[in-house]
TrEMBL record:
The keyword Lyase does not apply. One of its GO terms (biological process) is intracellular signal transduction. It comes from Mytilus galloprovincialis (Mediterranean mussel). This is Uncharacterized protein. It comes from the Eukaryota. GO terms for cellular component: cytoplasm.
Length: 108
């Protein structure tokens, strides 16, 4: 695989990680909103207990918040790695173009 093709692959993986990050953020925000609604119901309703349905929803939303936060961190790390790798490949490509400038001109 050529360096240019490798660069495109790395860029694609970087975009994939960015999309995963955006998705995790959306899931995270929705789950946090559900948790906030349940807490608000508990505070404003002056109830000592939530119904079993609300408890189940709150537990599920809390799990989703934790999972989304982990996914957010994983995809952010992956995206940063891909950006770094892409930069390295671009630098290598630039160096190769400079060192092979004469050969490139002759090939044209």
């Amino acid at each position: 695989m050529s360096r240019r093709n490798l660069s495109f692959v790395v860029q694609g993986e970087s975009l994939k990680a960015a999309r995963q990050y955006q998705s995790a953020i959306g899931i995270y925000r929705a789950a946090k909103e559900t948790v906030a609604l349940a807490e608000d119901k508990l505070v404003k309703g002056r109830e000592c207990q939530l119904s079993s349905a609300w408890q189940e929803m709150l537990n599920l939303a809390t799990e989703r918040v934790m999972e989304a936060e982990l996914e957010k961190h994983r995809s952010e790390d992956q995206h940063l790695k891909m950006i770094k790798r892409c930069g390295q490949l671009e630098n290598q490509l630039h160096l190769l173009k400079r060192s092979q400038k004469k050969s490139i001109a002759n090939a044209r």
